[in-house]
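Students often ask why inverse folding is considered easier than folding. One informal answer: many sequences map to the same fold, so there is more than one right answer. In these notes we will look at a single instance of the problem. The structure comes first.
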């Protein structure tokens, strides 16, 4: 064989080797992609929420509600008696204030109520940031700061807000931290959360501390009601629509409150209220049941959280956690299927880096090349050059996690409706309209989530009953709602009605 022939054979060998490498690479890619899709498929199966399972979750919620009403500590649901026994009727009239403290900012609001047929005439508010030092200082310095800002707000009022002589200003205090409530306007702090850590406040009556600070400012103002944001949402909802029976917050966290018959609360030992009603703050984020579809990602998230074993329902349906569940699934895919290359992108290892608003934006991306997904991967996780196939897989992940959360939220609402007997029509009973007031950024801004939740609720209730159930957005319940509860529990109520 001549030199030229040998070279031709060698050239063919080079081509064959290159082709073999390419085939191996393709096989590896196919294997990795199969692994990636298998992980997504497995998550989809474990997050499954067939109607039969959702009914079991709803039944479990109703059972836990009964247990929580029967005795303190009888259920994972605290079923807290709010002492709100009069909800707004729409007839409230006059000037009322609200102080909304639930995080690193607080708001002061003023509302002018016009009475029957006139509703909310005017509202104004100011928002104030709390200096970090005050969040870990003393009870006195924190409440003095709040009262100073409250006095400034009142001090800027014009003559149109002057009250008749001898009449005190009245305020509703939204305090979104765990308290043991002892009356409509008193409650002791159980523990601080959300970055606050002031040991000497624990065990103290937060209304008494605020009142003391207000008095120091020379401000003649009475705290008429202590409420949490969910109870406020219920009040705001019922003020606008008296068919409202419950309120749900779906935001960073989640909770529900509803109107219960006072005689259906075995753990209530006081005199029955004249209205016969009592608002119950469920604290439903702490609900758990063997029927909840939990995954390995949920278990690891819970174990590594600040409150392992608690708030399980909240950890699978609320805005604080949905993006983190997606990140954990994505991390496993990156590690086991190398969809972003041989090295797992460092940012993908950072807990809570992928927030639910990012997840929502990716889920809602309708561009032909999923540009929004590409940009979020690049800007948030520092992952560039992703294929369209990978981006589609990520949208699928978001859909799976959001769908499970939304469908479980619907099951929770069904549990409340069952407790109220509003899940079916009784024979001979007139069809009643039932309204659920809903608030929270997750419900308001994550359209795919809220749409899925409402569709699931209708599916669970059936066409006839589903048509009588309305989900209504109740905006700013934590603020306006507190002022409305101050109005419905005003010390001047009888005078105003006479």
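Output (designed amino acids):
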């Amino acid at each position: 064989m001549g030199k030229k022939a040998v070279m031709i054979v060698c050239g063919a060998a080079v081509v064959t080797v290159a082709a073999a490498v390419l085939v191996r690479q393709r096989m590896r890619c196919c294997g990795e992609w199969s692994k990636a899709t298998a992980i997504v498929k497995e998550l989809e199966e474990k997050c499954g929420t067939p109607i039969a399972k959702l009914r079991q979750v709803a039944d479990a919620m109703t059972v836990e509600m009964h247990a929580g009403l029967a005795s303190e500590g009888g259920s994972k649901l605290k079923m807290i008696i709010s002492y709100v026994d009069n909800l707004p009727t729409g007839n409230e009239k006059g000037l009322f204030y609200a102080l909304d403290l639930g995080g690193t900012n607080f708001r002061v609001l003023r509302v002018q109520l016009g009475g029957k047929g006139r509703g909310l005439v005017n509202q104004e508010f100011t928002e104030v940031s709390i200096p970090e030092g005050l969040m870990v200082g003393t009870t006195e310095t924190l409440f003095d700061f709040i009262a100073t800002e409250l006095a400034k707000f009142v001090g800027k009022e014009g003559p149109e807000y002057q009250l008749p002589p001898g009449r005190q200003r009245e305020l509703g205090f939204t305090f979104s931290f765990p308290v043991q409530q002892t009356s409509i306007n008193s409650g002791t702090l159980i523990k601080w959360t959300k970055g606050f850590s002031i040991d000497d406040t624990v065990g103290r009556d937060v209304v008494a501390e605020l009142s003391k600070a207000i008095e120091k400012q020379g401000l003649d103002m009475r705290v008429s009601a202590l409420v949490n944001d969910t109870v406020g949402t219920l009040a705001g909802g019922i003020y606008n629509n008296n068919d409202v029976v419950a309120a749900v917050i779906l935001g960073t966290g989640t909770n529900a409150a509803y109107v219960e018959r006072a005689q259906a609360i075995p753990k209530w030992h006081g005199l029955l209220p004249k209205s016969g009603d009592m608002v119950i703050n469920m604290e439903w984020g702490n609900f758990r049941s063997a029927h909840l579809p939990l995954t390995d990602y949920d278990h690891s998230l819970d174990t590594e959280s600040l409150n392992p074993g608690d708030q399980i329902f909240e950890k699978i349906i609320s805005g604080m956690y949905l993006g983190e569940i997606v990140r954990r699934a994505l991390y496993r895919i990156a590690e086991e299927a190398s969809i972003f290359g041989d090295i797992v992108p460092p940012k993908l290892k950072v807990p809570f880096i992928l927030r639910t608003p990012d997840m929502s934006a990716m889920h809602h991306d309708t561009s032909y090349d999923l540009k929004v997904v590409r940009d979020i991967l690049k800007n948030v996780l520092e992952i560039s050059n992703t294929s369209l196939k990978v981006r589609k897989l990520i949208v699928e992940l978001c859909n799976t996690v959001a769908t499970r959360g939304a469908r479980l939220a619907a099951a929770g609402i069904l549990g409340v409706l069952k407790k109220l007997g509003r899940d079916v029509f009784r024979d001979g009973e007139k069809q009643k309209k039932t309204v659920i007031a809903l608030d929270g950024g997750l419900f308001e801004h994550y359209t795919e989530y809220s749409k899925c939740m409402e569709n699931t609720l209708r599916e669970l209730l059936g066409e006839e009953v589903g048509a009588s159930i309305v989900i209504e957005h109740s905006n700013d319940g934590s603020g306006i709602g507190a002022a409305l509860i101050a109005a419905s529990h005003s010390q001047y109520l009888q005078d105003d009605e006479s």
